[in-house]
Design goal:
36% of the residues lie in helices and 16% in strands. It is of the alpha/beta class. It has a six-stranded parallel β-sheet with strand order 3-2-1-7-8-9, with helices on both faces. Strands 5-4-6 form a three-stranded antiparallel β-sheet, covered by helices on one side. It binds 2'-O-acetyl adenosine-5-diphosphoribose. The site of 2'-O-acetyl adenosine-5-diphosphoribose has 27 residues, from helix 10.
Amino acid sequence: MGLKMNPPEEHLNRQMAGVAFPIPSGLVQALRNARHVTVLTGSGISAESGVPTFRDAQTGLWSKFKPEELATRGAFQRNPKLVWDWYAWRRELVAQAQPNAAHLALVELERRASGFTLITQNVDGLHQRAGSRDVVELHGNITRVKCFEEGLVVPTWKETDETPPRCPRCGGRLRPDVVWFGEMLPADAIDRAFAASQACNVFFSIGTSTLVHPAAALPFEALQHTAMVVEINPCSTPLTARAHYALRGTAGEVLPDLLRML
Ligand code: OAD
């Protein structure tokens, strides 16, 4: 399905709503009628907050660092200090970042929708800081740490002479509470994510390259269950050709305009 727009009418609507980005009227209508809206976000939604993505050329984290040296259990066993310090650097970066217009628009969408599920691959906690109440975190959260040995989340920890610090319970090393390559996603989060993708009428994929599974399967799951699938991303991804609408702009410009049109 392509863009269903009547250009003159669309132009008039946009002028009236003070909107710069062309929002398809078919999407506006579908959102107004939707019983349940599901949103999947990736690192692109936090790019306008100054948090780097993973795969963008030049600026993406994986263009500068090797995932196998920083984001696997083996990497932590080989060099726990390197891994801890890298995540501590990212934790600091995220602490200084602020939610942007896209995070805030999703808070408003949640408020207006009759049913709404927000699923994120991001570990930065910016959706929660923006005010989203119920966020399904597929890849954990960088602001939490857990014991490498037992997996128990440790609510607070002290930076000590030893890096990484030790678990106060068992003395094992502490690690970030994020999902590393080769690890399982939290079962309740992935179950909720698939259920919400199957049950929704409109599914948004925002700021994700649609390359990392199982999250990358969610928009296709929604398509199979007859949802309208909308991508918001300045670049194309493996989803673009299958999406009902691919809105080629940044999340921070498209989402606020979409809200204004509703
Ligand atoms: P990627 O870096 O793979 O993709 C980021 C996407 O965001 C790209 O498609 C960009 O075009 C898009 N983008 C960039 N700026 C944007 C903006 N302002 N608005 C909208 N889109 C924008 O990041 P993810 O898809 O999130 O996993 O990566 C998925 C997973 O791979 C991450 O959760 C992480 C990573 O390795 C783990 O660490 C387990």
